[in-house]
Amino acid sequence: MRIRPAEPVDATSIATIYNQGIEERSSTFETTPRNPTDMLERLQTGSRYPVLVMLDEQDQVVGWASLSRYRDRACYDGIADFSIYMSREARGQGLGKHLLQALLNEAEALGFWKVLSRIFTSNQASLALCQTCGFRQVGVYEKHARLDGRWIDCAIVERIFPANQAIGLTPVFANGTETDGLSGC
């Protein structure tokens, strides 16, 4: 298996894998299938929020993971949300661990001090993956949203990068601006 930054040519595969998650109703509140154009928008978030893909031996995309903006306020610039989706065929083989770890390495190198997500409490495979990759569960959003008429609870998970929290650290973001991560709170 090989992991690399996603390219526009990967949009169809990324949409297909995401649509499996939508169809299964196990990992996202989304209910409308995505097309490649939708996923191209996700790929155009710049180097600040990377999308990685995992390729099998035939160079077919079998999984993808991404960082996205947590909140608009400047005080949260050092926090990213993450998503990870594996194709049905690739699940249960331990591959997600490698993909998520690669994404975490990218996040740390980009200066993020925290990566987090919300995971359906019924999605035991994703919760176990996060625990394996050093995340801690910090709580549960009860009845976070409805999916097909049912209320779904979501576990909140976070992974902190202590080195990026050091006093005096001034991350430089993709647009060339610097932030102390403290203004605007």
Explained architecture:
This protein is α+β, with helices and mostly antiparallel strands. It has a single domain (2-165), classed as Gcn5-related N-acetyltransferase (GNAT) (Aminopeptidase), CATH 3.40.630.30. It is 25% helix and 30% strand. It contains 4 helices and 7 strands, in the order βααβββαβαββ. The protein has helices at residues 11-24, 36-43, 95-109, 124-132, and strands at 2-5, 51-55, 61-69, 79-86, 114-120, 136-147, 150-160. It has a 7-stranded mixed β-sheet. Strand 2 and strand 3 (61-69) form a beta hairpin. The longest helix has 15 residues, at 95-109. It is globular and about 40 Å long. The chain starts with a strand and ends in a 25-residue tail after the last strand. 29% of the residues are buried.
Short description:
The chain has helices at residues 11-24, 36-43, 95-109, 124-132, and strands spanning 2-5, 51-55, 61-69, 79-86, 114-120, 136-147, 150-160. The protein has 185 residues and is of the alpha+beta class. A 7-stranded mixed sheet has the order 1-2-3-4-5-7-6.
Q: Please tally the helical runs, counting DSSP H or I stretches of 4 or more residues.
A: 4
CATH class, please? Alpha Beta
Strand content: 25-35%
**Parts with pLDDT < 50 across at least 5 consecutive residues:** 180-185
Tell me the number of structural domains. Answer: 1
Spatially, the strands of the biggest sheet line up as 1-2-3-4-5-7-6
The radius of gyration over CA amounts to 16 Å
Major sheet summary line = 7 strands, mixed
What is the end-to-end distance?
42 Å
Summing up helix and strand content along with how strands pair, one would put the structural category as: alpha+beta
Order of helices and strands: EHHEEEHEHEE
Mean pLDDT over the full residue set? 89
CATH fourth-tier homologous superfamily: Gcn5-related N-acetyltransferase (GNAT)
From the 3D coordinates, which CATH architecture would you assign?
Answer: 3-Layer(aba) Sandwich
DSSP, total strands? 7
Helix amount: 10-25%
> What is the 3D shape?
globular
* CATH topology title: Aminopeptidase
